[in-house]
Design goal:
With about 550 residues, the protein is α+β, with helices and mostly antiparallel strands. It is about 65% helix and about 10% strand.
Amino acid sequence: MDINTCLETTQDYRVIAYYSHYIPLLITLVVSLFVLYKSKFSLLSISFFIFTGSFCLWLLGDVFAWTANDYSFVSFVWAPLDYINVVFYILGAYFFVLIVKDGKDISLWEKLIALSLSLPALWITVSNQSITVFYQPACEAFNNDFLSQYKFCIEILVIAFILFYAFFKGRKVTGEKRNQIIIVSSALTLFFGVFSLTEYISSQTGVYEINLYSLFVLPIFLFAIIYSITTLEIFKIRLIGSQLLAYVLIVMVGSQFFFIEDTTNKTLTVITFILSLGFGILLIRSGQRETKARLKIEKLASELEQTNAQLKELDRQKDELLGMVSHQLATPVSSIKWYLEMMKDGDLGPLSKEQSEHVVAMHAIGETMSDLVSMILDVSRIQLGRMRIEKQDLDLNTFFHDLVATIEPKALEKKVELVKNIPQNMPVAQLDRRYTNMTIENLLSNALKYTPTGGKVTCDVKIENGEIFVTVSDTGMGIPASEQDKIFGRMFRASNARNAVDGNGFGLFVAKGAVEAQGGKIWFESTEGKGTTFHVQLPLKD
């Protein structure tokens, strides 16, 4: 045998070597370059490219060692393989750490520690000690024992680190992030584990052909990365997975053409390649359209979110402005009311009949203005979350006596029957006097307002299980069913009431806020044309 050729010793394994090396190499380059370009050279994609690039370098060296004819060239490419092996394991661990850290880099001293792990292998390689003997007749090199053992230790260390880091960090996250960690760590561990195991078995048995078959596990890792890119966006790439899968499919089918010698098989491969290319182009174009549509939707969603945020801020500013204006109006309106009341009572001198009538009318207008300003202030406080509840001892007997005394004249004036079912000897409650009075008075006033002459308004009061229940029902116009879910909204008025009765739409909004702020509930039932019943439930004690 010509000692300067390795052809005969590797003849039986050349085809499998081509398949197990060149196809994974091409797929790896396509995936890594695609990721690098699409992610705009992010740190994570750069680390992935360097990691896969170092492995591609190892693949080239290994396939040359299996298929080259010149033993001196085989020896040349064989020598650095163990060092490159150590490097791509360390780079794989670095890539995984960046995935877990969402692309954030590690510190300088951590990088120096990782780099230092490769230095012993580097020194042995550059000092020409990585191969101790090269047996020319068999075209086989014998590696440095220490380097082989050191490389195996690094491999085990990296696999253990990935598993430990994935377990430790995976417990602290949920959702897609945990899925990222599980999928990528599993794929890396499977790839590295099979690679190391077959290397170890081949070194112990001397059957080095086993290494050729271990490389078929690499596509599993790459497809896991493709899945992670598509579904989990580990590289923050907005793309449709069909694009990348189409590229990989074309590479896999097309690469077979270079390894097939039979004319029939070559013809079939060319036909398959052309079909794959056609379908691949369709997939890529479809993916591009879908990607553009998705980006447009995401842009619109982002703009909508920003617009909503701006509207909320404008709404908040409007509420603050309303509150400020109302607060500024409250004092002069109160002063006007006070002076009008003094004039009405004759404290500023006697008034003629005509003057007295005008003063009474102005005083009523002042009362209305004061109530409106107070209501706007309450709305503003509710909107801004600044409603202050001041609970105090409230004698319910006196409270309802005064309330009925206020409401009865209005019922008599409108000729509406007012039915009162209020128990005697009610306890003292811990409630906010102003807000409780405002709520029930508003419900009774509304009931009278929306009930036509000759109708009936009923007020029922019950004390049960440490709570007071107030029910106000009327035989008025009722609330349309389609609008009932909006009735407690700010400034909302039912469509059948807008033109029939004056109002501002603040009352029920404030009533709901006042009741709920005291730990109570308010709800209603209504039938359009037949009437409405409101229920208020409040705790007697704080």
